[in-house]
Amino acid sequence: MVSLARANLLHEKSKIGISIAGVVLGVFLIFATTGLYLGITSVVENMTLKAGADLWVTAEGSSGSLHSPSLIPLSLKDKLKNIAGVREVTPLIRRPVATDMNGEQMLINVNGYDIASGLAGPWKVIAGTGTPGPGEVVVDRVLAKKDGLEIGRYLALEGREFKVVGISDETFTMISYLVFMPLEDARTFMPPGLTNFFLLKIDPTSDIDSVSEAIRKEIPAISVARSETNAAAAKEETVGGFLPIVLVISAIGVLVSVLVVGLLVYTMTIEKSREYGIVRAIGANNFYLYRMTLFQAMTISIVGYIIGAIISPQLVNLIRYFVPEFIIVITPQMALWVFLVFLATGFIASFIPVRRLSRIDPAVVFKGS
Amino acid sequence: MSKTKYGGIMQSVAIELQHLTKIYGSGDLAVKAVDDVSLHIPEGEIVAIMGPSGSGKTTLLQMVGAMLKPSSGDVIISGKNIAVLPENDLCRIRLHTFGFIFQTPNLLASLTAAQNVELVMNLANHRGEKPRLRAIELLEELHLNHRLHYKPAKLSGGEQQRVAIARALANDPPVLLADEPTANLDSRTGHQVMELLRVIAKEKGKTVVVVSHDSRIRDVVDRVLWLEDGHLRVRWTNGAVIDPVCLMIVAEDKVFATSEYNGQKYCFCSEQCLKEFQSNPQRFTKPTIKDS
Fold first, then answer.
1. Shortest CA distance to B260 belongs to which of B274, B245, B242?
2. Number of folded domains in chain A?
3. How does DSSP classify residue A16?
4. Chain A partners within 8 Å of B128 (Cβ)
5. What is the nearest CA distance from A260 to chain B, expressed in angstroms?
6. pLDDT tier at A67, thresholds 50, 70, 90
7. Burial class for A43, CB neighbours closer than 10 Å (0-12, 13-18, 19+)
8. In chain B, what's the furthest Cα-to-Cα distance?
9. For residue B284, is it within any domain?
10. Does A309 fall in a domain?
């Protein structure tokens, strides 16, 4: 069977190429903004989830995120340990430290954790070790790349020098870089007798919610929550305000794609109105013409999506090489959603020339070319 | 299908027009392009509609071809009045009842010659090998077997017009409508196309309606209808008087001048036509008077 729609597309290679490029750009824009959102979200959530605790004990009302300050007395440790069902209690220090690096003021988040338990240690080490000794640190990949903090070099924080022994990934939150160090070293950045959080491991035989309730009863002036609850709260506090921006930019990407595809099928309708008139004159109805336009719009959208989906991760890697802060996560689920969005894009764009199509006069064939 | 007595014989009527009128615009700006035209065209007849520019020939053909709604009157094709049908039905009528041949071949640039022909059959829901083979067969019949996979841009004007004829025949329609099919062709190719139309009409039993300015068409048609100012003025058959330059019918008592060329006598409606003829008589090769 002859496909006029396909033949027309292949007949207009350069124009189709430009339109597909426009869609590819739209796909990348959506992958980039949504991926950025997912990237930050994943880092923020992982900071809680990957800590490995069953329960987080924080100052009353705090979620444990970097935006939710928490200070609690270290003396609570024994009290917590004595509650039935609590197997292990580990203090965690997470606090921002401003430092000057290569003449630039930067915000570092010191993550002082108990090396023995490993709770809240680096969860994705890409170079060196994940267990720093005294006077040693594991630094975030972005920070390392940005400031040349290779393994063996030193990071200065509030007058102290720490040797870089490892590089961790997924620990950059757009506003600060996580630096892991032993709890004892991190205490120097805290007032005496205080910590930020306690991380609790619960006996496998105990019910986490019952233990949580028992802690609340015993120490009412603190907050206790599961890691998942704190992660959700941290996500909301950190990136909740960022989501509308992401949605707006993604919507712009979709709109640009709809316009690019719509403009192409519309200009093709205008340029080919005589040919479409011929097709109508020889017996095709309006629906045939609409189906042709739909096929063209869908083809451009789908081909644009496929190319966009293939090159976006490569492009992200390339951009990340030059801009390490560009943290993007592209998941299969997200790819599926973007695909559905671009199916809808093609469908919507195909409606743009509908009015024009309905006005095509078959009698145009009687006029000379 | 209605039958009418035509030439003393009862014949099936392929096309019947009853008081067909088309008015463009309204009020003071209204223009009557076709005015109360009635005629019968029997099956298998090849008819030419001639007349000066702006006489309403194309408008008449558009209405017959289900591409233009008449302001009033009926267009009865194979017994069905298509003037009252909705657009979707008209598409089907155009697809199955008519084959169109236009002044410009109007081939689709992105398709090959064979695909241009096959597409019409696909539109009529013929799928698979059959339409492809029929397209090849039709193009071979028209001596285009070496051009099957050529796109229109690579074909000569005559070849393009032959592809258009093959396309017009693809769905085996009972009626062929041709609008100035020779206008863009050189005289030799134009003549070949006209001969081809006659062969198609006679061998395949098609009714053919040709709108043309080309006086040579008289040699291949059964009848010439003369349209002027939207009226069907004279139904001319061989033996009438016609100005070879402007193609106007000239009553013998209104002939402005006559001239002889190659032993043939020609009549003119005006001095201008006479001068134009005398400047290059070969342009107007066919005699306008057949001595009876």
1. B274
2. 2
3. H
4. 1
5. 23
6. low
7. buried
8. 62
9. yes
10. yes
Judge if A212 and A299 occupy the same domain: no
Structure-block tokens of residue A138: 């594991």
Q: Is A283–B120 a contact, with Cβ atoms under 8 angstroms apart?
A: yes
| Alpha-carbon gap: A348 to the closest alpha carbon of chain B (Å) | 25
In a domain, B21, yes or no: no
ipTM, interface predicted TM-score of the complex? 0.74
A192 and A66 housed in the same domain: yes
- Establish if A156 belongs to a structural domain: yes
Write the CB contacts of B263 (distance below 8 Å, at least 6 apart in sequence). Answer: none
Domain containing B264 equals: 245-292
Residue of chain B minimizing CA distance to A358: B87
In this structure, is residue A209 part of a structural domain? yes
The residue range of the domain holding A174 is 61-220
For the stretch A180-207, pLDDT in tens is: 999 999 999 988 899 999 999 999 999 9
In a domain, B229, yes or no: no
Pairing label, strands A104-113, B264-268? unpaired
Tens-place pLDDT, residues B217-251: 777 888 888 888 888 865 444 445 667 766 666 66
Q: Is residue B290 part of a domain?
A: yes
Q: What is the mean pLDDT of each run of 10 residues along chain B (292 residues)?
A: 45 81 89 90 87 87 92 90 89 91 90 95 92 94 92 93 92 91 79 83 88 78 84 57 67 79 77 82 52 29
Beta pairing, strands A197-202 & A55-59: antiparallel
> Distance between CA B218 and CA B291 in Å, rounded?
15
A8: which 2 tokens? 């027309």
| Structural contact between residues A208 and A54, judged by C-beta atoms closer than 8 angstroms | yes
- Provide the b/e sequence for A250-261 (b: ≥16 CB within 10 Å): beebbebbbbbb
Number of domains in chain B: 1
Chain A / chain B CB contacts < 8 angstroms: 82
**C-alpha separations of B275 from A321, A341, B233, B245, B271 in Å:** 84, 72, 26, 10, 6
